Amino acid sequence: MSETAQQVAAAKAVPPGDGPSGLAGAGIAANTVPGRTTGGSSTRKGIIAIIVLLALFAVPFVANTYVVFVVSLTLVYAVSTLGFNLLVGWSGQIGLAHAALFAVGAYGSAIGVEYGIPFLLTIPLAGIVAAVLALVIGFPAIRLRGFFLAIATLALGMAIVELLTMARPLTGGGGGMSVNVWSLPGITTAASTYFVVLAVAAIMFFLMRRALLGRFGRTLQAVRDLGQLTGSLGVSALRYRLVAFALSGFIAAVAGTLYGQLQTFIFPAMFQMNLLVPMLVMVFVGGAGSMWGPVVGAAFAIVLIEFFQDLGDQQAIAYGLVLMLAISVLPGGLTSLARRVGDSRFMARLRRREVAE
Amino acid sequence: MLQTIVSGLESGSWFALLGLAIVVVMKAADVPNFAMAEMGLVATYVGISLAAAGVPFWIAVLATLITGAVIGVLIDIALMRRLSSYGHFPLLLMTIGLTLALNAVVGLIWGHDPRSFPAPWTGAAVQIGGGVAIGVSQIVSIIVGLIGAVAITAFFRTQVGAQMRAVAENRSTARLIGVSAGRLSAIAWAVGGFIAAVTVMLQAQSALVSTLSPASLIIYGFVAATMGGFTSLLGTFVGGLALGVIQQFVGAYISSAVQFSVALLVVFLVLILRPEGFTKGMVLRDV
Predict the structure, then answer these.
(1) How many independent structural domains does chain A possess?
(2) What's the CA angle centered on A182, arms A180 and A186, to 5 degrees?
(3) Which chain B residue has the Cα nearest residue A331?
C-alpha cells in the first residue's frame, strides 16, 4: 500500500518530459501524450495520414503476394497491439489473456461464417463476444493488481484456449479448422483480404486516436497513476479499468477475425504462449502507453520473425537474445529512443535556433 | 489410492519447491521469475553431464546446486537489477526472454531428448502392506521438499532473512536504515536458483526431464506461489502439495487431459476467493 503511495508521489515529483526513468514510478514507462510531441497543425497531420493510407492502398498493385501478406499481417498485429497497449500501457493493467481473446475473434468469425452469418458482420459480433469475455476475465481486476492480475488473466486465457480445444464439434478440436475466406467481388483473394484488413485497421486507429487523445485516454492515465484516488474526482477507477479490459478484448477479437482470414487455417496451439510473447514484445517495443507505438512494435516483430525464419534451431535463441538486448538497452521501448533524442540538449539547441530565426 | 497420494505428494513437492523459489525472488527482488524452471534445468543438465563423465554422484549434485545459485546471481547482476527502476513490465518481459534463451541454449548444447539424473536409489522401491510399492525416489522427493520448506522458513528468521522481508515490505525505508537492497536481491536470486536446481534435479532422479518439461513445471510452480499469495511460505508449500495430489487424483479418476485445466481452475478460484493466499488470516499473531 505504502509502495503505491510512494510511486504516486514519485510520479508527481518528476517534472513533465523527464526521461523514462523519472516516470518509472507510475509502474510503467509512460509517455506524455499531449503538448510538444504533437507538433504541427491538424490539417498537416490529416494530409500525412491520407498520404500514408494511399501508399498502403497502392501496395497490392505494386508488390507481390508475399509482401502483401506480410504487410497485412503487420497491420493485423498493429490493430491487436493497439488493444493490448490500451490495457497494458494506458490503463496500466498487465492482462495476459490477449492471445486467447485474439483466438476468440478468429474462431468466432470462422464459426459464424459457417453458420451463414456474413463475414463483415462477424467482425463486430466476435468483438462483442470477446468484450464480454474480457469483462469476465477482467473481473479479478476488482481485487487484484500487478503480477497477481497478470497470473489470473494468464490462467483464464489458457483456460479459453483449452476450451477451444475441447469444443471439438464446433472448432475441430486440437486439429483445427479451415476458415472460409471472404473476398470483395472481382478481386483476387490476397488483395481483397488486404483491403479489408487495411480498412478495418484504419477505422480502428482513427477511433482509438479519437478516444485516447481525448478525455477517455486522459482519464485512463489518471486511473493508472492514481488508482482509487480518482474516486475523489468523481471518476470510478473500477469502471475505467473494466472498460479498458472490454475495449482491449473487442480490439483483440477484431484483429483475430482478420488473422483467421489471413491464415485460412486456425488451430488452438497457434494462440498460446508462442503468440502471447510476440504480442508482449510488440507492446514493449512500441512503448507502453504511446499512440503510434503499436505500428512500430508490430513492424519490428514481423521483421524479426521473417528475418529469423531461416535460422531453424537457433531461432528461439535469437528471439530470446534480441528481446533481452532490447529490454536492456531501451527499457522504455523503441519509441522512447526517438523521445530521448528529441529531449537531448542537441535537439533543444536546434529547436531554439529555429525559433530565433 | 495410497499410490496415487504418494505420487501426488511427490510431484506436489516439486511444485511446492519451485513455488518457494519463485516466492523468495518475488519477496526480495519483486520479480515474477518465469525463467525459474529453466534455471533449474540448466543446472541439472550440468550435473547430468558431470555424472555421465564419471564424476561421483554427490559431487555432481553439489556442482548442480552451485551452478543453480551462480546462474541466479549472474542473472540478477547482469540483467535484472538495472531494470528495477523501470517498473514491472520490462522485468516481466526480461524473464520471458530469458526463458526462451535458456531453453534454446539447453536444446542447442544437450539436444531435446529426455534425460534423467540417475541416483543410487533410482529404481529401488519399498514394499508396504497390500502389495503397494513406493519408490525410494518418491520418498526422497517428499523428504527433500519438507527439508527445503523448513530451511527456507528458518532462513527468513535469520538476520538476512529479516532484512529481506524488510526490503519486500518497503524498499526505501529498509535502505534508509542501512539494508543493502542490492546484496539482498543477489542472495535471493542465489537461493532461488539453488532451490530451482534442487527441484529439477529431484524431478530428474525420479522421472525424465527435457526442454519441454519446464513449461508445465513453471505453471504449477506459479499456481503454488499464487496459493500462498506470493508471500506466505507455508501457503505456497501446502498449496503445492495439495495441487500435486489433486492433479494425480484428476489424472487417475477423470482424465489426464484435464489435469492442466484443473490447475488453472484452482488458480482462478484462489485468486477470486482469497487473493492474498489461502493461509492469510490464519496467522493472526504475526502482526
Answers:
(1) 1
(2) 135
(3) B90
Q: How far apart are CA A194 and CA B285, in angstroms?
A: 64
How far is it, in rounded angstroms, from Cα B69 to Cα A49?
53
pLDDT, greater one: A142 or B243: B243
A245/A235: higher pLDDT: A245
In-domain check, residue A3 = no
CA quadruple A329, A334, A339, A345: dihedral sign: positive
pLDDT recorded at residue A21: 36
Instruction: For residue A160, give how far its alpha carbon lies from the nearest alpha carbon of chain B (Å).
Output: 10
Judged by DSSP in three states, A28 sits in: strand
Q: Are B222 and B22 in contact (CB under 8 A)?
A: yes
Which one, of B244, B17, B2, B5, lies nearest residue B146 by Cα? B17
pLDDT tens digits, A205-244:
989 888 888 888 888 888 888 877 887 888 888 888 899 9
Decide if A105 contacts A167 (C-beta within 8 A).
no
Cβ–Cβ of A331/B103 closer than 8 Å? no
CA-CA distance, B64 to A55, in Å (whole number)? 57
Average pLDDT over residues A299-324: 77
Render pLDDT for B138-153 as a digit per residue (tens, 0 to 9): 889 999 999 999 998 8
**Contact status, residue A111 vs residue A223, Cβ threshold 8 Å:** no
Q: How far is CA A6 from CA A25, A147, A252, A258, B96, in A?
A: 8, 18, 34, 43, 28
Q: Are B29 and B185 in contact (CB under 8 A)?
A: yes
CB atoms within 10 A of CB B132: 13
What was the pLDDT predicted at B123?
Answer: 76
Q: Do A317 and B86 touch (CB under 8 A)?
A: no
Residues of chain B found within 8 Å of residue A321, distances taken between Cβ atoms? 97, 101
Does B102 lie at the interface with A, CB-CB under 8 angstroms? yes
A chain contacts of residue B93, beta-carbon cutoff 8 Å: 280-281, 284, 323, 327
Residue A273 has pLDDT above 50, yes or no: yes
Taking an 8 Å cut-off on Cβ atoms, the answer to whether B93 and A280 are in contact is yes
Domain with residue A122: its CATH number is 1.10.3470
In this predicted structure, what is the pLDDT of residue B73? 94
A69 lies in which domain range? Answer: 14-356
In a domain, A311, yes or no: yes
Quote the ipTM score: 0.74
For a pLDDT cut of 70, what percent of chain A falls above it? 81
Q: Does B158 touch chain A (CB under 8 A)?
A: no
pLDDT of residue A170: 86
Q: Does position B285 have pLDDT exceeding 50, yes or no?
A: no
Query: What b-and-e string marks burial along B139-158, b requiring 16 or more CB atoms within 10 Å of the CB?
Result: bbbbebbeebbeebeeeeee
Q: How confident is the model at residue B278 (pLDDT cuts 50, 70, 90)?
A: low
What contacts A247, CB < 8 A, 6 or more positions away? A83, A86, A131
pLDDT at B37 over 70: yes
State chain A's maximal CA–CA distance in angstroms: 71
Residue A202 lies in a domain: yes
Residues in A closer than 8 angstroms to B100, CB to CB, are: 277, 316-317, 319-320, 323
DSSP-H helix ranges across B111-158:
136-157
Residue A8 falls inside a structural domain: no
CA distance A19 to chain B (A): 11
